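Appendix B. Chain record.
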Amino acid sequence: MELTSAKAVKEIQNRFGFTFKKGLGQNFLTSSEILERIADAAESEGIIEIGPGFGALTQRLAARAEKVAAIEIDERLIDVLGFTLSGLDNVTLIQGDILKIDLPELIRSEFCDMRVSVAANLPYYITTPVIARLLEERLPLENIVVMVQREVADRLCAKPGSKDYGAISVLCGYFSEPEVIAKAPASLFVPPPKVDSAVVRLKMLEEPSVSVSDEGLFFKTVRAAFSQRRKTLLNCLCSFFGIPKDELREIGDEAEIDLSRRGETLSLAEFAALSDGLYNKTK
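Structure tokens predicted for this chain:
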């Protein structure tokens, strides 16, 4: 069943008495072209899909992958998906919250030694927590392909010095090569959201893009730097770590970083040098 027309969506709604829940960010993409691009970008032996909705993307993923595990938080959609995905014996439906599911165990039990990617249509309110979890747990993933609000896509892919550059930009750049692969205006969704969206692919790196002495401290340094965006690195680090400013200046000098700068101006390499300086000072 083709699921990319407003008519098809309406037919399914009528058949199952389904109503959209705004609180779950349920806006279903109706563009075949963009769905194909997402499926192409996520193509892998195994795919974890987060938020399959009515199954329009799931159908395309199943045509490319040996196995798809589709995780849906809304239990009302399990019967809908059972109907729209009938006959696809390589799709496993899992009703649950992506933030609570044991993903390492899911990968072990469902995909064995397969290469695995993630495809997701993420509502705004869980975008950062989900992406952070997928990256920080060091799951054996090839790609993470996510549909997010356009402004979030800008942040995920932002470079140093831009207004969109922040802690999530550093996180993505540390573990992956992020890029926007498609843009999706609100008119392509049912029901249409109030903002436009974009598709981002995070191509996972075999090793982090920079080497650090203490990864936990590296990310604490990044969080500190962006904790008060209008303040200098010196003030942010002093407030966050409680280290006297004269000691911080010494660390900055050794790392060749002027702490009168703001966090959004630092590259990943500079964040690594700064966190290593803090590590050497406090170990």
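Further analysis of this model is presented in Appendix C.
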